[in-house]
Structures are given as structure tokens and as C-alpha cells.
Design brief:
Blueprint: H1 3-17, H2 21-43, H3 46-63, H4 73-129, H5 133-144, H6 149-156, H7 160-180
């Protein structure tokens, strides 16, 4: 930036500090595009860059009176743009980390639930294998094959009452087996 530009900026800063609002408009016209470009170069997001530039102007307006050397406006304001851009990146990284953690926790929960279900299924199958064969058949036909008691009685050539009785006794034995293994609450 040429020496003349520093003097123009310094003059505009002094005018604004003296209460001239038009001086601020001129500074915005001179610098806003540069702020947007600098922010975009850092954050690689055009919408975020515009927000950062706008936020930079808010900071400049609030702190312009604290600027002791008006000739340093360019460096001072660009440092604000850079700091706000880096803050935006940090915030995005934290958000990404939170999302990643959230997804990992959910995936872990799903895996734990899946493992728990598999374990329960294995234990249930193991318990079913401990039943007498006629009770195993009734349990498998009723729960796995989705047979009705009437269909079970026809398939096994037994009365409907017998199939109902075998199913009842099979359930009771399964409850005992699982209770002894601490799988039933």
C-alpha cells in the first residue's frame, strides 16, 4: 500500500474519531472488499467471509477511539480480520469435533446394543437347546416359523391342547434357565 493511502486512511480515521460519520462510510468503501477477500482467503467460505468482514466493522466502530496511531489503521484492521477468521475456524473445528464425538458415541451405543442383542439371542438359543426336543419344536414353530397352535398340532400330529401345554411348559423352563443365568429381570 502506498504512503498516500496510509495518509488517506489516517485522515479518515481522525475525521471519524472527531464525529464525522461520512468518514466511516469512506473507510468502509475503501476496505470492505479487502476484508472480505482476506477473510475468504483464510476461511475458504464466502458467506462466512462476509460475516467476518461485517463483524470486523462492528469491532472497528467500537474500538476506533482506542486507535492511537491512525496511520496503523490498515495493519490494525487486517489483524482484526485475521483474528476473527482464525476464531471462526476454531469454532468450526470444535463443532466438527463435537459432531464426530456425537456420531462415535451413537455408533458405539448402536454397537453395544447390537452386541447385547446378539448375546441375548445366543443365550436364548443355548437355553432352547436345553429343553426337551418336543418343547424345542413347539417353541421354534411358534416363535421362529410363526405357526399358530392349530398349525403346530397338525404338523406334529398332536392335539391343540397338547401343543398349547408344551408351549406353556417350554416357556416356564426357559424362564427358569434364563433366571438362573441372570438374564431375566
Amino acid at each position: 500500500m502506498s504512503r498516500n493511502n496510509y495518509h488517506i486512511d489516517a485522515k479518515l480515521v481522525l475525521e471519524y474519531q472527531s464525529g464525522d460519520q461520512l468518514a466511516l462510510e469512506k473507510l468502509v468503501k475503501r476496505w470492505h472488499k479487502t476484508f472480505c477477500n482476506k477473510a475468504h482467503w483464510i476461511v475458504k467460505d464466502p458467506d462466512a467471509a462476509k460475516d467476518i468482514a461485517q463483524d470486523t466493522w462492528n469491532t472497528i466502530i467500537n474500538k476506533m477511539d482506542d486507535l492511537n496511531d491512525p496511520k496503523t489503521f490498515a495493519c490494525w484492521s487486517l489483524r482484526i480480520v485475521c483474528n476473527k477468521s482464525f476464531d471462526w475456524i476454531k469454532k468450526q473445528n470444535k463443532t466438527k469435533e463435537r459432531l464426530k464425538t456425537y456420531h462415535l458415541e451413537n455408533k458405539t451405543e448402536e454397537l453395544n446394543e447390537s452386541n447385547e442383542i446378539e448375546l441375548l439371542q445366543r443365550n436364548l438359543l443355548s437355553a432352547i437347546k436345553k429343553l426337551p426336543m418336543h418343547q424345542q419344536l413347539v417353541i421354534r414353530l411358534f416363535y421362529v416359523e410363526d405357526y399358530s397352535l392349530k398349525d403346530i398340532s397338525k404338523t406334529l400330529n398332536i392335539s391343540e391342547g397338547t401343543s398349547k401345554s408344551r408351549l406353556y411348559h417350554a416357556r416356564e423352563k426357559l424362564k427358569l434357565i434364563l433366571k438362573n443365568r441372570d438374564y431375566e429381570k
